[in-house]
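Repro:
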Amino acid sequence: MKRRLRLRINKITLATFILDICVIVGLIVINTSSFKVFWIPTAMTTMSHKYLAYTLYSEDTVNKVMKENYIDQVNEEMNLDDIVIDGGKKKHYTNKYEKELFNKDPNNDVYKIIRIEENNYKGYLVGIYDPADVDLAVTNKLGKMGQSVNTLCKQHGGLVGINGGGFEDLDGWGNGSIPYGAIIKDGKKIWEHSGGSGQLIGFTEDHKMYLTSKKPQDAIKKGMRDAVEFGPNLIVNGKISKIHGDGGWGVAPRTVIAQRKDGVVLFLIIEGRLPGYSAGASMNDVIEILQRYKAYNAANLDGGASSTMSVNGKLYNRPSAGGSYGGRTVSNAWIVTNKKHKKAPKK
């Protein structure tokens, strides 16, 4: 009996020792500056998990880290004349990435999908050769219920689609029904709600990407055709926004939209929050990818669990949540159609 008791005590002692070691290691890790810079911005840029930052750190610490990690956006009006649309024709390449982009797939002159694989993250870049093929699809239950990117693509004839602007996501259960900020569709403001960034991301009537802080009605006067409200802007007129630290956005799944000077549109999806597969990307990571493919203007769209890509009516990427049912429901999506072969609607 004494021997059994001694063994039991030894096991308890060993378990306690191991637990103590784990606690000590944990305390050391969470107090390192690198972990703070990773953990706090990652938590604070989610809509429903900010509490994770305050669970480990004081309010003063959270505020200090966020003040040291921010983005200085390029503060100038876009020069839309810089964009000269040439139909995706390219004969001379400045680097291997451009060659990869313009080496079109057989029987597909509308878009090309390029796999992105780095040490810590994976994703996809889509090059759309004719910007006239890019449209904004909006849930037909606006204010009541969102729809998945797959569904939005199917309803609006989209070959490829990515999620667009953000929406109310209380406690992580948002269904895409209440978009943040404004939505412009076909030259008309169809939605406006509080909580937006004040930055419109969209395309003009002549298919040039337009990033502006103007009010929706003023942006429409300047030719805005379709737009959502989000950000930050990452590249404006070829100039890169300055990232301090990690920009205050942490490492996460990302969705980005961009345009080259020749009019080619780029969709970028980064997968993340998938341990052992893809952690996610920082804003610096995203900008680096965009620079490879010569993006001239670029803006961040809603990320996290909302980062979704659909191709031919099927979920194409691995979202951090909702993959089992085709991806989260969202308010809107940027989609690619093929207008050259699109049938005219029945009268």
